[in-house]
Write a structure and sequence with these properties.
The protein is an alpha/beta fold. It is built from 13 helices and ten strands. The chain is 42% helix and 15% strand.
Length: 276
């Protein structure tokens, strides 16, 4: 960072000025709005797409490719950063000029969502406003804690426009979601996200495919889905069984994730009830 930029950002805001927040992480931004502090946001990262009001805010860049100049140009008094925000040196530079940085837990676990809410609520002085939200999350997580394992073998496809489709293995947010919904991840024996291979997909033999609805549309619909390597030769392909989801809500492990998993569980039950 240029020395002159440090000096510029050292300017002290008036004591009476309202807090100026920058949120880094879609889960963080959603919680800020849910706690009634959306009007204090002056910036967000590119993964913060919800609610719709967030898109109108200045974008400081992708969560894992941040730069201090972009953040400090907005003269924030508080930066709320998802724990996956990178590079870490950027946040250290922001702190050096006197801006408070609060790191929000990022582990893809249902139990961590309430911790995220509590962390942000304490930073904003909104612990009272957080109670109804925490109560709702507690009810949903309790309901998810008692899934009846279905034994259905699911394949989660991460399809990105212009890139090769990936499948979700273990140690991924998708794997946690599948297990929370009572499903078996057919790629659970491999780590992280892997490129699709015809041999691997056929051997895994999923009877259900799960994919983001927007990604499926960009792909060209279900007709194009079954042309992916080996997929048409699986039980899922032969039965044409696919469930579309909101990937951001489901994998973000924010305040919408528990309900998104409950919805997935319901959709799975409906799919098998109507298509043996």
């Amino acid at each position: 960072m240029k020395p002159w930029f440090f000096l510029l950002c050292m300017a002290v805001l008036p004591a009476a000025a309202a807090p100026r927040l920058v949120a880094l992480g879609g889960d963080v931004t959603e919680i800020v709005y849910a706690l009634g502090s959306g009007e204090q946001l002056v910036g967000r990262d590119s993964t913060s797409q919800r609610p719709a009001a967030a898109i109108k805010l200045p974008d400081v860049g992708y969560l894992r490719q941040l730069n201090s100049e972009g953040i400090l140009s907005l003269q924030p008094t508080l930066v709320l950063a998802n724990g996956q925000a990178q590079p870490s040196q950027v946040l250290q530079q922001v702190e050096k000029v006197g801006v408070k940085v609060v790191t929000v837990p990022a582990s893809p676990q249902l139990s961590v969502i309430a911790l995220k809410v509590n962390t942000i609520a304490q930073a904003l002085g909104k612990t009272a406003q957080a109670q109804p939200l925490l109560a709702r999350l507690s009810r949903q997580v309790t309901e998810l804690g008692q899934p009846a394992p279905t034994g259905h073998k699911a394949l989660y496809i991460m399809a990105n426009q212009g890139r090769q489709s990936l499948v979700a293995g273990k140690d991924t947010a998708a794997d946690v979601v599948l297990r929370s919904a009572g499903l078996v991840n057919v790629m659970g024996q491999v780590a992280h996200y892997q490129q699709m291979s015809q041999e691997g997909i056929i051997a895994a033999a999923p009877d259900l495919v799960i994919i983001d609805r927007q990604a499926l549309q960009q792909m060209g619909g279900t007709t194009q889905l079954w042309t992916l390597p080996g997929l048409s030769l699986t039980p899922a392909g032969k039965a044409q069984r696919v469930i579309t989801i909101d990937q951001m809500a489901l994998l973000g492990f924010g305040i919408d994730t528990p309900q998104a998993i409950l919805t997935l569980r319901h959709d799975v039950a409906e799919s098998y009830a109507h298509k043996p």
